[in-house]
Structures are given as structure tokens and as C-alpha cells.
């Protein structure tokens, strides 16, 4: 996939968030999490990140059932993102569903750590 293809794909994905992604987005949008600005379905190279905070260079991924058996692909993707200076945090979709407050606390902590350097 080309970078242009990832931009088009990101536009489509923004309209089709999974329930856990939609639940998390409610708490990340409009600087609702400690004033941090997040983008959803953000293109990065040939990849599309579930959520991205540019100030912290932090990618948030919500892994649902479709990630089963994709460990090597996800690892390769994470390695590439790290070479671009980004940190990647992954949460199982079930964790977002049952423990949203802890997920939000961890995201805020990780972002603040990266911003402070």
C-alpha cells in the first residue's frame, strides 16, 4: 500500500470505528484527556494508526479479534513506527471495554512521560 492509499483508507476507517475504538475516542477527542490532542485513524507511512498524539509521538492501538494470528505483522509495524520516533501502546479491545479508566490513566501517563522527555 502506498502512503496515498493509507490516507484514503484512514478516511474510510474514521467512519467505521469499532465499538471499543468509539468508546475510547469519546475520551480522547477535543483534548478531553488532560489537554492532549489526539487524531483518530491517522496515516503514518503505509500504516493507519487507531489514535495518535503528535505532541507525544504516541500511537495507541486497540487490538480486537482481527489481530489474532497477526503477531509478526504487528511487531514489524511497531518496529517501523519506532524507527520514526514513535512509541506504540497496544490495548486489547476487551481491556478498553471493561477497564477504560485504567486505559485512560496509562495513556495520559505515557504521553506526559514522552512530552517531558
Helical residue percent band: 40-55%
Strand tally, please?
4
Can you identify the CATH class? Answer: Alpha Beta
CATH topology: Endonuclease, Chain A
How many domain regions? 1
Distance between the termini: 33 Å
The residue-averaged pLDDT reads 90
What would you call the structural class?
A: alpha+beta
Strands of the biggest beta sheet: in what spatial order?
1-2-3-4
CATH architecture: 3-Layer(aba) Sandwich
By CATH, the superfamily comes out as VSR Endonuclease
List unreliable stretches of 5+ residues.
none
- Determine Rg (CA atoms, Å): 13 Å
Q: What general outline do the C-alpha atoms trace?
A: globular
Please summarize the sheet with the most strands.
Answer: 4 strands, mixed
Report on the structure:
The protein is built from 5 helices and 4 strands. The chain has 117 residues and is of the alpha+beta class. It has a single domain, classed as VSR Endonuclease (Endonuclease, Chain A, 3-Layer(aba) Sandwich). Strand 2 (47-53) and strand 3 (58-63) form a beta hairpin. It starts with a helix and ends with a helix. The mean pLDDT is 90.
Amino acid at each position: 500500500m502506498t502512503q496515498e492509499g493509507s490516507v484514503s483508507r484512514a478516511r474510510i476507517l474514521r467512519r467505521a470505528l469499532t465499538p471499543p475504538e468509539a468508546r475510547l475516542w469519546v475520551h480522547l477527542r477535543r483534548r478531553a484527556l488532560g489537554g492532549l490532542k489526539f487524531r483518530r485513524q491517522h496515516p503514518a507511512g503505509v500504516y493507519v494508526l487507531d489514535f495518535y498524539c503528535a505532541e507525544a509521538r504516541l500511537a495507541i492501538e486497540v487490538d480486537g479479534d482481527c489481530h489474532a494470528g497477526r503477531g509478526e505483522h504487528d511487531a514489524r509495524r511497531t518496529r517501523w513506527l519506532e524507527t520514526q520516533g514513535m512509541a506504540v501502546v497496544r490495548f486489547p479491545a476487551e481491556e478498553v471495554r471493561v477497564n477504560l479508566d485504567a486505559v485512560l490513566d496509562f495513556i495520559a501517563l505515557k504521553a506526559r512521560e514522552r512530552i517531558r522527555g
